[in-house]
Structures are given as C-alpha cells and as structure tokens.
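User: Can you predict the 3D structure of Hydroxymethylglutaryl-CoA lyase? Sequence below.
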Amino acid sequence: MKIIECPRDAMQGREVFIDTAIKAAYINQLLEVGFDTVDFGSFVSPKAVPQMRDTAEVLDLLDLFHSKSKLLAIVANVRGAQDALQFEEIDYLGFPLSISETFQQRNTNKSITEALEFVENLQNLCEVKGRTLVTYLSMGFGNPYEEPFSADIVAQFVGKLDERGVKVIALSDTIGVAEPTMIERIFTTNIEAFPHIEFGAHFHSRPEGIAEKVEASLRGGCKRFDGAIKGFGGCPMANDELVGNVATETLIDVLEKNHGDLGLNKEELGEAMKLANFVFQ
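Assistant: Sure. Here are the predicted structure tokens for Hydroxymethylglutaryl-CoA lyase:
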C-alpha cells in the first residue's frame, strides 16, 4: 500500500507566497514520516503557478539522507521536464492528462492530442534518464463541461497511455464528483485489463465522502493513494470550498482499518500536522 503525500497540491493555489525556507522545513518534516513518495513541487511557468517558482531552491534545502521517501515533481512542458531531469534526487515526473478537452486546454494550454504527444516524448525522456512518469488522468470520474464521459472512455485513455509505455496512472477526481460505484467499477475494469500498470487514486472530496471513496478504490484493487495533510488544496473549479484534497490522516485511518499498520512514523506525522497549521495559516 503506497501513500503519496502532496504538499505541492496543497500549496500551489495559495495566494500568499509561502517562504522558501518554510516550504523546505515542512517538506523535510514530511520526509520523516515514511510516505512512499512526496509530491514536493512543480517545474511550470512562474506566471501560471507563482507559488511554485522556487521549486529548485526548495529541493536544494531538502534533507534526503535519512528518508526512504521518493520525490515527485509536476511538469507541463518540455522546458519544465528538462529542468526537472537535471536533478537526480527527483524519482518521478508527473503530468496531468485530461479526459476533458476543455480542462486540458485550461490546465496545460494543450489539446488532448498535443498532450498525448507530450506524454510520449516525456515517457521517452524518463526512460533515457532512468526516471518514472506518473500520468494523472484528470476529470477521470466526470467533469462539469457536459462532455461525453463513461468508464469506457476512461479505459480508452488508459489504453492510449499503455501504448506509450506509461507504467503509473493516477485516476483523478478533479472536482469531487466520483461516486463509490463508479470508482470501484473504473478501478476493477482497468486493473484487470492492464495488470502491468500501477493505478493510483487522486481524489478531491468533501471530508465526509473520503472514507467511502477510498474503500471503493480498495474494493477495485487500488493500492496507491494521494493525500495532503488536513485536506489542504484541491481544485478551485469544484465551486465548493469544502472540496479539497483527501486528508492524509483520514486516508491513513481508512487504510489501516482495512489493511493494518502501514509502517508510518506516527510521532513524525503528528509533528507534520502541527507544522501544517503554521504553513497554511
């Protein structure tokens, strides 16, 4: 069972810039907990995401010597990928591919066709550099644009990614609309059809909906989950201030209830939760 902690997703939408040293101190604390991976930053346009303009500087301040956690950074174009690949400390590069044409344009200024071409190029770059590409299939459980959506369409996109050699796909409930029945069906169908791909769940949710979404994913065979401490962050397009990231502490409770101890350092997790109150005040 893998937990990916996502301070990048929690921070990126904050209007007030979080000091570089504070970002690094928080991420260093997260690295002590024992998460499989920490999604720590992104190499994207500082005009588009000003909060992430210091990702390289944050990376330089991270203490990775005693941590078993891997690092993931989001990229949106070739320049960002090239910047990220300069750093050997980064294990995963993430890219958001959307089932929605509208959201793909808004999120990365690319059409779906262009985004798939970029995924292919990025996958090749990652293979050459010995890194792993994580493709986030955003709007993976529905979207607000009245565009066609079904579990079959999700499977078609997974098939396209499989053709390009992608080995990790995070199905993403971008606006918090996923229903447990649909979640279980989508994971079951794709995990059975593509057993060589590692599927993850990146949910945005109201707090009261987290447990049922995670449990539905588990029934579908998912073993990789994204979260952010206290549920900070989330997509503003959800039009509901209560829809944020899955709170990591809730995610841990649900997973341990179903699968036992996850081997995390709960004392360090408690310290991270205290620090989060300061970082996101």
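The mean pLDDT is 94. The domain at 2-279 is CATH 3.20.20.70 (TIM Barrel).
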